[in-house]
Every structure is written in structure tokens, then in C-alpha cells.
Amino acid sequence: MEGRHAAAAAVNVRVDGATAEATLGDGELRWRRAAGAERALSLEEEVLGVEARGKEVVVRAFLASGAAKARSCVGVAGAGGTGTRRRRKDFVFEMADGEGPAAAAWAGELRARLDSFGRPKRLFVFVNPFGGKKCGTKIYETEIRPLFEAANVSITMQETQYQGHAREVASSLDLAEYDGIVCVSGDGVLVEVVNGILQRSDWEEAIKMPIGVVPAEVISLLS
Fold it and tell me: Matching Pfam families, A to Z (predicted)?
């Protein structure tokens, strides 16, 4: 858990041209501007990834309604089954001292806290381009892949070409290379993947592989 990390010392930054003080602690990234307004992001629930870019630190977030205090909400419809809508947003923090090493160090601290959540780093993604409304590939390219890339997740994508294709791939896939499998499809591809895993000689271990599903008829994850 991120709670094992001690609160980090405050750093002086500029956000949207305004001076602010940023802190890490209690699972959140907080920053307070000189005018007194404070904003916060939950590291586990809202921050996808972080990147040091020269003297700047870019925090890639996926915001729900009410995120970062006065946050607007558009995006995922029905995420988590709650009807919550989400949108992608980048927050750019410029180190007040203007030094690249300071940005790299702070980004490293942020990244260490994100890594402590045990998020997957390598995913194998099945995409069914034929099922339902035939929008699986579009959903993957425009909405799913950008989220994984923002979270620094390595992706191997396989479009299914025929019935039983996912079963064949899953039956021989080197699962040691991945932290999980994602199906951008309907139930059919998921069933094929599970059946393929159950056909393996190492199925008792292979069946422990986390498998997720992105329904291929759900669109507008981002806006």
C-alpha cells in the first residue's frame, strides 16, 4: 500500500503559471496555490502515470466526477457500474527552481508510490473486431490503448480472426511474459480464453492469471 511511504517534503512548483506548494502523503498528491486554493488527486484511484520532462513533471490522471476538488466530469459512462463519468487530464508541474534533476527526483518518488499498488505492467489484449456492433478495434485504438499508454503499461494486442482463435492463442501463450489478459469483446472471446487456458498442461497455475473484459459495445470511455 502507498501508506507505507512517509509523507514527502513539500516542493515548490508552478501550475498553469501560478506558484504552488505540492506535497505527497496519505495516498494523495496535493497542491496549494499562493491564493490559498487547494487541489488533490488520489494516487491509487485517479493517477495513471507520471513522466519527467525536462524541468516539468507531467501527472496523467483519469478523473471522475468531483475529482481534484473542483473537477468537471465527462468520460466513462457506467464505470464501475456506478454511472460515474471520467475524462483524461494531464497536470503539469514545473519545478520552481527550474532544475531537471529536481523534476526527475520528484517524478521518481511519485512513480515509486504508484508502483507500490501492484498494478499490472504487461498486458496481453484480445480485440474482437467482428462481434456486436463491430466497434472493438475502434474502442481499443481510441479509448483503451491511450489509457494503458498513459499508465506506462506494455501492451501486446491480438485481433481475433476467426471463431476459436482466442482459444488457440491462450492455450499456448507464454503467460510468464504478462501480468494479465484483457478481452475487448463480448462474452464469447472471454469464454474462448478461459477454455484455452483450461486446455494447457499447466492449467492449474495458468488459471490464476487475471483476466479482464472491456465490453465491445460500450463506447465513450473518454471525451
Answer: DAGK_cat
